[in-house]
Each structure stands twice: as C-alpha cells, then as structure tokens.
Amino acid sequence: MSKIYEYVRHPRAEELRASRPVHTQDLRRTQHSNPVVRFNARFGLRITLVVGTMWAAYIFTVLALFALPSAITQGTYFVVVWLSSSFLQLVLLPIIIVGQNIQAAAADKRSEETYKDAEAVLKESEEIQKHLLAQDQAISDIVSRLERLYQHLGVPTTPAES
C-alpha cells in the first residue's frame, strides 16, 4: 500500500531552528555602512544611555530648581513657563527614557518567551508527525494483512469484484 500522507516541512521551521529571537541590544549592535550614520547612532545611543537614568533625572531636577527663585520673582507667567519649559522637560525626559528602557527589556523577555513557545510547539508537532507516521505504517500493515486474508479466503477486495 502507498503512503497515506506525505509530510512537507514548512520552510519557516528551519529558519526558526537556525536563528534566535531578536533583542533590542541586537539592533544596537547593527553595523551601518556609512561612517557618519554609524557615528551618529553610537553617539545618540551613548547620550541616551547617560540621560536615560534616574541619576540624570535627579541632577536635572536640581538644575531646574536653580532657576525657580528667578521665575517666582518675575511673576506667575514666568513660573508657568519655568514649570513647562525647564522643570517638566528636564526632569521628565530621563524618567521617560528609563520607562522606555524597562518596556524594551520587558518586550525582549516576551520575545524570548514567544520564541521558546514556538520552538516547543515545533518540537511537539514533530513528535505528532512521528506518531502519525507510525500510525500510517500500522494502518498500512493492517490493510496488507486484510488483503492477504481476503485473497486467501477468495473474497473480492475491490467494489468492482463484488
């Protein structure tokens, strides 16, 4: 008896086996062919790593507070200007970057877990495929035995012979 089913492996399964999940740090290490772009990327990353800390937020808070007495003496309008342009921008910028770094780390962790889940599903499907192939072989063996038994007994095996 011929095979009941011919398994064709999906090409993505081999790609998955040969790769690993992409992390934020992998994107940071990407090499650019243009030296200016490469310099700008490294310089921007360095500034972001320095400014994106809570210590930078504390330093910016102290720095912004130095201008507060001058803003108070000039009146309410200047206090609002100081609050919106100096204090909030200086202090919130590093805090937002810290939050984004935490979110990026969480996204990397989710990516890693999703990759592991996909790998586990792939392994499980391979085991299912092996099981199905074993069942196909067993079914083929049963059909062959039945055909031999029918031939031995002289019973027709096809509808046309009935």
Please tell me about this protein's structure:
The chain is mostly helical and 162 residues long. The protein has a domain at 22-117. The protein has helices spanning 11-18, 24-28, 35-51, 54-66, 68-74, 76-153. Helix 4 (54-66) runs antiparallel to helix 6 and helix 5 (68-74) packs across helix 6. It is rod-shaped, with a radius of gyration of 34 Å.
Structure at a glance:
The protein has 162 residues and is an all-alpha fold.
Structural category is mainly alpha
Helix content: over 70%
- Care to count the β-strands? 0
Enumerate how many helices there are, as a single number: 6
User: Roughly how many Å is the radius of gyration?
Assistant: 34 Å
Largest sheet: none
* Strand residues, percent: under 5%
> What is the average of the pLDDT values?
83
Which features does this protein show?
mainly alpha; single chain; 6 helices; 79% helix; 162 residues
What's the SSE blueprint?
Layout: H1 11-18, H2 24-28, H3 35-51, H4 54-66, H5 68-74, H6 76-153
